[in-house]
Fold these 3 entries.
Entry 1:
Amino acid sequence: MDTWDAITARRNVRAYEQRPIPSEDLNRVLEAGRRTPSSMNSQTWDFVVVTDRDQLAALSKVWTYATHVAGSAATIALVAPVVADDGERLVVHYDLGQATMSMMLAAADLGIGTAHSAVADQDLARTLLGLPADRDCAYLLSLGYPADRPLRPLKRPNRRPFEDVVHFGQWRGGA
């Protein structure tokens, strides 16, 4: 799949086939995250990969909308340092968003579906993942082969029209 096809095929997948992801494919997805640009090349992230079924079920309880984690073949926890400064925290989370998207596109390229999740219960996440006190689990990225249909470029994505989203030069009309 080329880059544009990966972008147009990628969608949130929350129901997965019960088959493992080959380690070389999982490592490729992780390498995409590792190679992601970060502010001043700080690379403040770490990734914890979870494939154990019981651990995935427990991890799915860190946020109300993380139930898809329990059925995934693997979930990547994106871990970041606990940061007191608001500006620095914004930079760290922007970088984590970029790493997440890099991994999502690499997964789509391999036919692997993904869904992202926030983390509300840091104490539970820290316990399940063995994180030190100076780290938080910022996000989860579940992975697996889609149970409903394979990833293919979407002809009519459910997105706002281009002309409503893109503004050239300055904001124009609309909400």
Entry 2:
Amino acid sequence: MLKWLLGLTLSAATALAISLPIPAQTSKPNVAKAQAAPPPVDLSGVWRRSRRPPDKARKYTIYELAFSITNEKPPMTPWAEEKFKAAKPNVGPNSVSITESNDPILKCFPPGVPRIYLVRGEPVEIENLPGRVLMLFEYDHFVRNIYTDGREHPKDLPGTWMGDSTGKWEGDTLVVDTVGFNDKTWLDNDGHPHTEDLHVVERLRRVNHDTLTIDTTIEDPKAYTKPWGGHAIYELKPGWSLGEMICADNVTYGDMQQKSEGGK
């Protein structure tokens, strides 16, 4: 009788265990799969924007409309036109003195995306990690997490300086989608504005061992009548390591710029 009761108890417990869900095995399967899968291309290394001479056929400099892919200026809305006219950049053909400029980074505010790539030509280190790609910028030690584990952007994102970034692989190209910005940054060194509806898509591709390209598309219907963007080339810097560049340690970015005699 005791053996019969014990067997009945074990059978019931087994049936109950089979019927219960197993969260560890069933939750977020896409995330677990993405984290387990190695990236198709390793983007790791320290990279710096190429110093190759600009295309002579283009009318702008590396500082003016640095992300524009044509000779045409970005197609701004009237709101953006007014904001752009009020911008007083400190670099490029329309530059003014540091004391006159209203460039946000002169007060050590974060540069945002995509302008983070333009600040003084500072290098960036990229690391491939399970479920994400990590970007470490020498400028003010900014860290950018690009999640490649299949997650979506959180709902009701608060506006931030660098936005929220997710990524996916399309063949050998990392496609980065970033939203959730505030409206306090410039898109480039020339002072092109944006709203909190800014949507930035970057396509990073390692075309060979020593060359990385970044194609950027900027969408913001309140500021621009159509998408615009551009193409940047980065060169691998073997043996380089990121230095320490702390904007606040120079009181302001403008003070640091004066000390460095034009930067790197």
Entry 3:
Amino acid sequence: MVYFIGAGPGAVDLITVKGAELLKKADVIIYAGSLVNPELLNYAKKDCKIFNSATMTLEEVIDVFVSEYMSEKIMVRLHTGDPSIYGAIKEQMDLLDENKIEYSVVPGVSSFCGAAAALNVEYTLPNVSQTVILSRMEGRTPVPADEEIAKLASHKASMVLFLTSSLIEQLSVKLIDGGYTADTPAAIVYKATWPDQKIIKTTVSQLAESAKENNITKTALILIGDFLSSEYDRSKLYDKTFTHEFRKAKES
């Protein structure tokens, strides 16, 4: 069996219990060396075979699984954050299907959750934003035309951008062209939950300058939206004047 495991956003203790237990049992681990905290490999058995996928092609990854599968070994594909977000797991699963190799996915804590925790913010605030957009800027790898940043910005929802910190100068222009105001709150979170985590609070118009001042060029999330400010309405869920399935409204 191959297990695709979400390693979490960076901190070793933010991997799931299930993920950690499988790492301890694994006979083979292929980990995303450019992003996964290498301290997670301390869970591995002494005789575990460990491969760094940063130096491997897709076919080389699958070749390892194919060569080890007949030995009935537990194999782990360790991805950063949650595998379903920019994990490139679909192409791996398709090739495993072709080779009739069983697999299972163990979810993880995404870095966008780690960034919100680092900032002590909530993405979904009443009468501010009830939508979270997870995306990235087009760079060497294209994005669908309908998901171009300016079009996404037109919703003025809470936005988290992955894989974009090297393209930050163009980003501000596109965000403002799309609908965010120049003074819309923004934040750059470098290596969320890692020991060397860095948080930069800024605005949409100052994103590039803030990144340059702090020497941020990679491994950072960019958060945009009014959820980063303090203006919001209290939720109805705990409002004493609001009736729902579990509680009747109280007289004010």
